[in-house]
Design brief:
The protein is of the alpha/beta class and 237 residues long. It is built from eight helices and nine strands. The strands form two sheets. The chain has a five-stranded parallel beta sheet, sandwiched between helices. The chain has a four-stranded antiparallel beta sheet with strand order 2-1-4-5, with helices on one face. Helix 5 packs across helix 6. The N terminus is likely disordered. The protein binds adenosine-5'-triphosphate and magnesium ion. Magnesium ion binds next to helix 2.
């Protein structure tokens, strides 16, 4: 039986996921979390959480505050380690990838992004494998809705909304395969949020697997191809 998500649940029970979008190669593409359990503070926060983030699409994760969205997103690039369950990127268990490599491929923009000391440009360049060009810096800032004068600004002196956009630019400049964003629009006004939504859509059109946890349901419906809960099932509209 194929769900509206395009997930073939029968195949999935046999340990394989297929999407309605064309896929190449053998393993399921994109980021897939299956039956993830994680206890925090002595309590099971994630109880069999499941999430499929296919490439070429924006997936919105919606669940009540405290339900475990940030916890699950942090598992995707191993900032947290699940007690049980598996997470794969393009069919490869994330535990098999060196953490640095994994974090280049799975860009995570956190709910409260931390800026490093120095300029915005320093923040973009930090940890890159090759030197950051001015063009790449400008392109990443533009993608995040900032003009290139921001490159020279002190990262510690940004507003919350500017900080959120620099965090997005910092993830984009790494050319990740998957981009995971935790409440990316929380600090943004409606216009800038729309701009960020358009950026996420164009990144997905370039083939990225894009996932965002978000409380703003109308925004999720406007931007995302799929709106799902922590059980991996579509959230009814
Ligand atoms: N470091 C921690 N130690 C213990 N419990 C934690 C820790 N961090 C989070 N939790 C608990 O885990 C649960 C899930 O938190 P999480 O941040 O993943 O929720 P969320 O769905 O992202 O919520 P929100 O929508 O408010 O951001 C909450 O009950 C929270 O109190
Ligand atoms: Mg959260």
């Amino acid at each position: 039986m194929k769900s509206v998500l395009g997930i073939d649940w029968e195949s999935r029970r046999r340990g394989r996921l297929t999407y309605d979008r064309p896929v190449t190669g053998d393993g399921p593409r994109g980021l897939i979390a299956t039956d993830v359990w994680l206890a925090r503070g002595g309590r099971d926060v994630l109880r069999g959480a499941t999430l499929a983030v296919p490439p070429g699409a924006v997936t919105a994760l919606i669940a009540p505050s405290g339900a475990g969205k940030s916890t699950l997103l942090r598992c995707l690039n191993r900032l947290l380690e699940p007690d049980r369950g598996t997470i794969t990127l393009d069919g490869v268990d994330v535990r098999e990838l060196p953490p640095r490599e994994l974090r280049h491929r799975v860009g995570l923009v956190g709910q409260a992004p931390v800026m490093l000391d120095g300029s915005v440009r320093d923040n973009l360049a930090y940890g890159l494998r090759s030197p950051l060009t001015d063009d790449a810096a400008a392109a990443a800032l533009t993608a995040a809705g900032l003009d290139d004068t921001f490159a020279a600004r002190s990262a510690q002196e940004l507003s919350g909304g500017e900080r959120a956009r620099v965090a997005l630019a910092r993830a984009v400049v790494r050319r990740p395969a998957a981009l995971v964003l935790d409440e990316p629009t929380a600090a943004l006004d409606a216009d800038v949020a729309r701009q960020v939504g358009a950026t996420l859509r164009s990144l997905a059109a370039e083939g990225l697997a894009v996932c965002l946890a978000i409380h703003d349901v109308p925004f999720a419906r406007a931007v995302a191809d799929r709106v799902v809960g922590l059980d991996g099932l579509p959230v009814p509209s």
